[in-house]
Amino acid sequence: xxxxxxxxxxxxxxxxxxxxxxxxxxxxxxxxxxxxxxxxxxxxxxxxxxxxxxxxxxxxxxxxxxxxxxxxxxxxxxxxxxxxxxxxxxxxxxxxxxxxxxxxxxxxxxxxxxxxxxxxxxxxxxxxxxxxxxxxxxxxxxxxxxxxxxxxxxxxxxxxxxxxxxxxxxxxxxxxxxxxxxxxxxxxxxxxxxxxxxxxxxxxxxxxxxxxxxxxxxxxxxxxxxxxxxxxxxxxxxxxxxxxxx
Length: 246
Hints:
Low-confidence stretches: 22-28
Shape: elongated
Helix content: 25-40%
Structural class: alpha/beta
Mean pLDDT: 84
């Protein structure tokens, strides 16, 4: 191949490259429209839908359709890593619009310990605190794990259905004890009633235990004796045990 032919091939290649650059500049890949929907939304607004929308728009800007599916899968994984998100789905509609569906975690209670402080959702997922944002949920301390979490959920569900107990309820302390070939848990509720602690035992028969406490409370108020006691033990269901203040 002589020099003239080499030069001609080089010139044609250079012109084609310049033409391609000009074409891409004049006709860039269209920006994808992004829509964010919440399958379930926490009342505490822990996830900012607008921020996610902007992130997806930026991540898919100038992405060609032949590589869009792979990019959306990466984006979906990134979004799902957010500790406040339970589930994320990201996909392109036939129209070309990118749809982001989010299921948000809702904090059910807050765990406070010597070196721990975090939110826990109903399914047991842990979430870091959002400082500067107050969330009015029960405080839980003590021996919290996947097993005691089940009892905590049962107690909180029962309490939130009862306006009286919900109004006086502040939090739960969990202690673990050995029994047989395993161990059990005792849940103690702290209240706003002159520092009275209410021992609930485990999460069984919690509705009956709450009704027993309400009946006892009504009696003690009527007799003006509420201030005499510091502990009400409800764990035995069939009878109550009261401990006086010293």
